[in-house]
TrEMBL record:
Upper classification of the organism: Eukaryota, Sar, Alveolata, Dinophyceae, Suessiales
This protein's name: Uncharacterized protein
Pfam family name, one: DNA_methylase
InterPro entries: C5_MeTfrase (IPR001525), SAM-dependent_MTases_sf (IPR029063)
Organism listed in the record: Effrenium voratum
Domain of life where this protein originates: Eukaryota
Signal sequence coordinates: none
Amino acid sequence: ESSSVQTFKCVINLLNTVPVSWFILENVDLDSEPDGNLDLIMKALSSSGFGTHADGYQVKAFKILTSDYGLPSRRIRLYFVGVSRSSFPQFSMKCVERNLNMFTLKCQPPDAEDFMLDDDSATGYASIVDWRR
């Protein structure tokens, strides 16, 4: 059993022991069998809960390219957002989706000119030759 599967089982145990109103989990390993498929993870997260949160959680998975939000990563991450059904019975995941769309930065790479000195030519060749003299 991989360490990510063990970690996930500990998270489920924690949700079944400690009452939390909401949670966010990131980068769950979906390649691990047999517990690695998305349906099993969603079912386990949705049905977990303890005490005042025994009704379980409304859970949604979001695939996010974190560089769209200004974070230096090129890998797509999987985020699970869970909200207690008993604490927030009227909550809609559409609120999370709207906020994610609203805060997307769509950062562009910097222009090459940002890295050139004031007297550099467009090719930069002249400056390199001058520096060697």
